[in-house]
Amino acid sequence: MDKSPLAIGVFDSGMGGLSVLRALHKALPHESFIYLGDTARLPYGTKSPDTVQQYAVQMARILVECRIKALVIACNTATTAALPHLRTMLPDMPVLGVVSPGAAAAVAATQNRRLMVLATETTIASQAYQRLINAQIPDAIISSRACSVLVALAEEGMVDNTIARAALQHYLSDIVDEDTLLLGCTHFPVFKSLLSTLLPQHVRIVDSAEATATALQTLLLKEGLLNTAISHSMRYLVTDSVNRFQKVGEIFLGEPLNLSDIELVNAC
After folding, report:
1. What percent of the chain stands above pLDDT 90?
2. What's the rounded Cα separation, in Å, for the pair 105 and 234?
């Protein structure tokens, strides 16, 4: 059976993965995508790794039932907690996370080997980014900040107001020598515009979305799964709050999102 026309499954705890979906669709315009946001149980970033793994397995099963050819974990927290498990669970399907591509992009961006990682509590505690970066740059100096408040602000669509500005100023208060800021949560790219006004000009902002899109394209080509047909589709599944997902999702996608394209599903 030719699997290349099948959709690519993408999941996140909520809206953040839409920043990854946006990059994936731009890089792979002929591909169909099914996006699943676990809006009933966000955020993942303050929960234990075991709980996040349990949720990730449930999300993967929903998407597999939709008949997909590849799975993208568009959530840093879920990647750190569940990527190896999901690859074991789905041995015949490419499963890609966002952490490794993001770390590689940060390594390529830094010139003075001083980096800062903004992420959720669970991602920071996993040391995943630190290990991957240090594996390629052993003497890199990496600062990290757990910024779960930013997830809540992003989910509310509060990405460019005084509250968001104050939160970012708090987290960036001691950035001095770093030349690279790695956004280690897929919710954080919506703050890029505001970040550019707060950071020193020499600091490069890196997120995993574009790097993940490149990695997925390479993986699909290797596995013979690239879709060459012109027709493609986009589906959105959520576990709660359809109306809010539509409203805030437009901020992440940068384009209108029709309410009729969003379907409510059961997480369990």
Report:
1. 91
2. 27
What is the helix (H) or strand (E) element at residue 108, kind and residue range?
A: helix 99-109
Active site residue 185: yes
Classify domain 100-208 at the CATH class level: alpha beta
Task: Name the catalytic one among 66, 147, 185, 268.
Answer: 185
Instruction: Return d(Cα 110, Cα 85) in angstroms, integer.
Output: 31
pLDDT digits (tens, 9 = 90+) for 110-120: 999 999 999 99
Which of 19-23, 61-65, 154-158 has the lowest average pLDDT? 154-158
Topology (CATH level 3) of domain 7-97+210-264: Rossmann fold (3.40.50)
The two domains 7-97+210-264 and 100-208 share their CATH topology (first three levels equal): yes
**C-alpha–C-alpha distance, residues 38 and 105, integer Å:** 27
Structure tokens at 13: 């705890």
Q: Where are the beta strands (DSSP E) in the chain?
A: 7-12, 33-37, 68-73, 95-97, 114-119, 141-146, 180-183, 204-207, 234-238, 262-264
Phi-psi region of 224 (alpha: psi -120 to 50; beta: other; left: phi over 0): left
Active-site residue, 66 included: no
Catalytic residue among 66, 75, 147, 268: 75
Q: What pTM value is reported for the model?
A: 0.93
The closest alpha carbon to 30, from 232, 219, 224, belongs to 232
Instruction: Write out pLDDT tens, residues 6-44.
Output: 999 999 999 999 999 999 999 999 999 999 999 999 999
